[in-house]
Amino acid sequence: MAIKRNTRVEASFTMASMTDIVFLLLLFFLVTSTLVNPNALKLLLPKSTNQISDKAQVSVSIKHYIQAGTFSYHINGNTNAVPFYEIEPQLQQALQSSDDPTVSLYVDKTVPMEQVVQVMNIAKRNQYKIILATSPE
User: Fold this and answer.
1) DSSP code of residue 69
2) In terms of DSSP bridges, do strands 70-75 and 129-132 run parallel, antiparallel, or are they unpaired?
3) pTM here?
4) Is the CB of residue 102 less than 8 Å from the CB of residue 55?
5) Of the residues 10, 43, 87, 137, which has the fewest C-beta atoms closer than 10 A?
6) pLDDT tens digits, residue range 95-120?
């Protein structure tokens, strides 16, 4: 006489643990994306209604010290200032292997246009695209 066992494999899958993992990953990426700040310098950017969502490979920030009447140039949000004559070689080095070289320009509101145009001329000489960063209105 054959004894019949009553053990059947159940082919169901619960998604509860998977949704928990997805939710935790979503929270993690939201928190870490707000911590990443491409512009570490405190600049008062001009306001604009037009916003471009292009991805720049290198950023150049110009900060104006009104009391001293001086300017400081920073590449990629670095807190160490770069002399003006070193901007072009550093940009060339950073963008030499790029197919579509793009520079994002973060300029304090009080910086005279002459300083901005000088950096734009560097980009034009090297045939880089340039994006002028603004804050939304």
Assistant:
1) T
2) unpaired
3) 0.58
4) yes
5) 10
6) 888 888 888 888 888 888 888 888 88
